[in-house]
Amino acid sequence: MTKARAIEGNIPVLELWGRLVVPLQGDISDAQVEQLRDTVLARLRDSDARGLAIDVSGVWVLDSHICSVVSGIASAARLMGAEAILCGLGPESVLTLQAMDIRLDAVKTAVNLEEALERLGIRAKAADISPGMTDGDDELLAHLDDASFTRAVRRAG
Amino acid sequence: MSAIAKLETDVVSALGTFMSPMNARTLYQRAVRSACDEGDVAAIVGRMRSGVRLFVRAADVPRAEAALEALADGERSVRALTIELRTEGDLHAARCAVRDTAAALGARSLSSQKLLTVASELCRNVIMYTPGGTLDVIPSNGRPATVTLVCTDTGAGIANLDDVLAGRYRSKTGLGKGIAGVKKLMDTFEVSTGPNGTRIVTSAAVNGGFGS
């Protein structure tokens, strides 16, 4: 994580194949969370979106507050008839939350965004793309968050 | 050559036996970029440790880590840090301080995450429910190395402390388990609270197991 704050301003709510995707990054302020919840509910009302995936892999620290906030958004979405899935919790976050006895019982989870989208009904038929590292990648490596960096290095073998 | 530029050169040559210069430089840049204080050699070297495990063959890891340690020697005194807590923005500073202190003590990611989460819980309580306070992050380089967090505030005190610590209390906004969770996670935990404020002192060994 860098010294810079996370996204200033609105948290993006993306729409992919009729599902809403919310990528949470870094530190998120209470004001941003409120705005996010309002945006998500408005989009569920106004679009045909039938599901919501909240990806927390970019959140720096998952404490009880952010868990509560994310659960709240998921519950609100469910009240509007949309399925909500939380994804991107890493092993360290999971173990820490468990040890603190912070439960996310009310929210469905998936290990990553792909699985979340599958559970929301998306079926992928991608051409076979083998991940590899090209010459331009070393600049990018310096800017990745820790989890992505580790995955990139491991994939390169 | 500035101290920081010299450090980069030293890092690349120290790790050159174990990985390519390009990888060594990438690791170094990532460590510097994410350190809150670019001059904090101990924190930078600490941040590089996990990267070393990724790039270096398992058999070579101890020697590579020793090479890194040699660079940090003389910078070994890990400083205690104090962070003022008043607004939401101070949470970030508090987390940075904890993260860098843990890294300088050689914490692995699980241990670091645990300390970060605890600091987050405590500091958020101060910021959300009190006029303000401070967090002291106190490292100890013993065997095992430990981090002590002292969180004080000038609020009105924690009502229903027994219920809160037993996990019985549910707050309106949160899950109500912040402090109870902290107590479970850390090795030691003391809280004194009253109408003039609250003081929580909690510590854990770096890379220790999870508290019961």
* Overall morphology of chain A: globular
Report on the biggest sheet of chain B.
Answer: 5 strands, antiparallel
N-to-C order of helices and strands of chain A: EEHEHEHEHHH
Strand content of chain A: 15-25%
Backbone shape of chain B: elongated
Oligomer: heterodimer
The amount of beta strand of chain B, in percent, is 15-25%
Helix-residue proportion of chain B:
40-55%
Helix and strand topology:
The complex is a heterodimer of chains A (about 160) and B (about 210).
Chain A: E1 14-16, E2 19-26, H1 30-46, E3 51-59, H2 64-79, E4 83-87, H3 91-99, E5 108-110, H4 113-119, H5 137-141, H6 146-156
Parallel strand pairs in A: 2-3, 3-4, 4-5
Antiparallel strand pairs in A: 1-2
Chain B: H1 3-15, H2 21-34, H3 41-55, H4 61-72, E1 81-85, H5 89-104, H6 109-129, E2 133-140, E3 146-153, H7 161-165, H8 178-185, E4 188-194, E5 197-205
Antiparallel strand pairs in B: 1-2, 2-3, 3-5, 4-5
Report on the structure:
The complex is a heterodimer of chains A (157) and B (212). Helices cover 41% and strands 18% of the residues of chain A. Chain A has 157 residues and is α/β, with parallel strands linked by helices. A five-stranded mixed sheet of chain A has the order 1-2-3-4-5. The radius of gyration of chain A is 16 Å and the shape is globular. By secondary structure, chain B is α+β, with helices and mostly antiparallel strands. The longest helix of chain B is centred in the middle third of the chain and has 21 residues, at 109-129. Chain B is elongated, with a radius of gyration of 19 Å. The N and C termini of chain B lie far apart (50 Å). Classes of the chains: A alpha/beta (157), B alpha+beta (212). The A-B interface holds A 1-3, 5, 27, 29-30, 60-65, 67-68, 91-93, 95-97, 99-103, 138, 141-143, 146, 149-150, 153-154 and B 22, 26, 29-30, 33-34, 36, 50-51, 54-55, 88-89, 91-92, 95-96, 99, 109-110, 113-114, 116-117, 120-121, 124, 128, 167, 173-175, 177-178, 180-182, 184-185, 210-211.
